[in-house]
Amino acid sequence: MDTARKLEPEIIAAGGPRLDELSYTVLDLETTGGAPPEHRITEVGAYRVEGMRVTERFHSLVNPGRSIPTFVSSLTGITNDMLKHSPPSGEVLRDLAQFTGDSIVVAHHSEFDLKFINHELARAGQREIVNSDLCTCELARRILPWLPSKSLGNLAGFFGIPMAKRHRADEDALATAQLLIILLRYLMHRGITTFAQARQFQSDLLNYPS
């Protein structure tokens, strides 16, 4: 059953399922730089969260069809040689869309990731991902306004989430999935129990229950 795609109004009207009853696909990208169309995706990592547990994994390197700037390679550890024989973005993102299905898409900066993904899907002549989404960075800003930095690394350190590598899509996606579970539990403890409420809260449209 479709529980995420374009359903915010219906969920609001009907109350909707609880946050711990929904399926989420938590993803992260590495890219050649800041924004499409100049820059391209080099790595995709994603994890499915169901029943507040990490259940499935998706990972692939991506051939960006262009060179990676030296400073980006230094940051991520991903080199041009590593990507020579990797599949192109259209193929990888088609598989990612199948993995995602109708689940709620989550990323630490969801607008950034979805912008890249949908640009590449459109470029390949494929359907864009239109699933509902949540952003763990925006949720953290509302829940922890006093924490100086809401970077994934800082939040992982604050919550004790292990991260062996930074700036690699698989490791960052797993840390984001674990962060999501913590944030959802905190929201539910505070009485924010449905997806619609979480979206309203993320958008600063719902007062935080005391």
Q: How do the strands and helices of this protein lay out in sequence?
A:
Blueprint: H1 8-14, E1 23-31, E2 41-50, E3 53-61, H2 70-76, H3 80-83, H4 89-100, E4 104-107, H5 110-123, E5 133-135, H6 136-143, H7 152-159, H8 169-189, H9 195-202
Parallel strand pairs: 1-4, 4-5
Antiparallel strand pairs: 1-2, 2-3
Helix pairs in contact: 4-5, 6-8, 7-8
Describe the structure using short key phrases.
single chain; 210 residues; alpha/beta; Nucleotidyltransferase, domain 5; 9 helices; 5 strands; globular; disordered N terminus
Query: How far is it from the N-terminal to the C-terminal residue, by CA?
Result: 34 Å
CATH topology: Nucleotidyltransferase, domain 5
Overall number of structural domains: 1
Q: Hey, roughly how much beta strand do the residues contain?
A: 15-25%
- Shape descriptor: globular
In the CATH hierarchy, the architecture is 2-Layer Sandwich
**Gyration radius, rounded:** 17 Å
Q: How many E-type strands?
A: 5
Highest CATH level, the class? Alpha Beta
Q: Strand order, biggest sheet?
A: 3-2-1-4-5
The helix/strand class is alpha/beta
Helix content: 40-55%
Taken in chain order, the helices and strands follow as HEEEHHHEHEHHHH
Specify the biggest β-sheet.
5 strands, mixed
Number of helices: 9
**CATH superfamily, please?**
Ribonuclease H-like superfamily/Ribonuclease H
Mean pLDDT: 91
Low-confidence stretches: 1-14
